[in-house]
Amino acid sequence: MKFEDQRKIMIRSQIEARGIHTKKILDVLFKVKRHLFVPIENRHLSYNDSPLSIGKGQTISQPYIVALMMDLIDIQPEDKILEIGTGSGYQTALIAELALEVYTVERIGVLSEEAKQILTEMGYENIFYKISDGSQGWKKGFPQCNEFNKIIVSAAAPEIPRSLLKQLCVGGMLIIPTGNRFYQELLVVEREEKGYVQKNHGGCAFVPLIGKEGWKF
Ligand code: SAM
């Protein structure tokens, strides 16, 4: 079956069937060719309902969890988004379609470089890349940006990194899986004038966020 048809089925059976109907999310899931971000040996599995290996012990997340995270933080066209865990660059492309700018951080150099190459070839000009420990956010990154409208963390932390909370603007939202190494809860934290409000969106399982404000190994 053609990849285009597989994408249509993925959207219907994995995303809409689980209750995500936001048109702009469904549209970008159709527009962005997920198979371009999947290593050649796994490409035939690109539209399966599961995460897939991208090498270096890391994964491209399950399509549904990617869609859910973007839906929960309600990305707006004027948003500056910080993404922690570039991975394959697939979610970076989806966010770049929906937001003004994406600042994406990956700790594994080769993954960041491969993602940058694909995303540049695809023509994205609103993505800024950094290879470093994203548990501390976009510290000293280029271009300078200290405050983000939304922060998406696609690796699991033992608790919410304080540096990320500080880099969220008032009215902004952070989404992050937190818990132990094998099971986490998907948390959305909204920054209000006088503090933070947290909501739990249920169980999930991500690779670990490794860094100063994540897991130590
Ligand atoms: N959203 C990605 C995609 O579409 O391919 C999948 C991300 S993968 C589940 C999680 C990524 O987080 C991995 O590539 C991993 O190397 C990265 N990571 C883990 N700890 C990190 C840290 N402290 N800073 C930046 N990236 C980190």
What would the keywords be for this entry?
alpha/beta, two-stranded antiparallel sheet, binds S-adenosylmethionine, Rossmann fold, 7-stranded mixed beta sheet, 6 helices, about 30% strand, about 220 residues
Rough shape? globular
Strand order across the largest sheet: 5-4-3-6-7-8-9
- At CATH level 3, the topology is Rossmann fold
CATH hierarchy: architecture: 3-Layer(aba) Sandwich
Report how far the terminal alpha carbons are from each other.
Answer: 41 Å
- Secondary structure category: alpha/beta
Ligand roster = S-adenosylmethionine
In terms of DSSP E residues, the strand content is: 25-35%
Query: Superfamily at the CATH H level?
Result: Vaccinia Virus protein VP39
Look at the structure and give the mean pLDDT: 97
- Give the helix tally: 6
- The CATH C-level class name: Alpha Beta
Number of domains: 1
Description of the molecule:
The protein is of the alpha/beta class and about 220 residues long. The protein has one domain (about 50-205): 3-Layer(aba) Sandwich (Rossmann fold), CATH 3.40.50. The chain is built from 6 helices and 9 strands, in the order H-H-E-E-H-E-H-E-H-E-E-H-E-E-E. The strands form 2 sheets. The protein has a 7-stranded mixed sheet. Strands 1-2 form a two-stranded antiparallel sheet. S-adenosylmethionine (SAM) binds near residues 85, 88, 106, 155 and 207.
Question: What layout of secondary structure does this protein have?
Answer:
Elements: H1 3-15, H2 23-31, E1 52-55, E2 58-60, H3 63-72, E3 80-84, H4 90-98, E4 101-106, H5 109-121, E5 127-131, E6 148-153, H6 162-166, E7 168-179, E8 184-192, E9 195-204
Parallel strand pairs: 3-4, 3-6, 4-5, 6-7
Antiparallel strand pairs: 1-2, 7-8, 8-9
Bound molecules: S-adenosylmethionine.
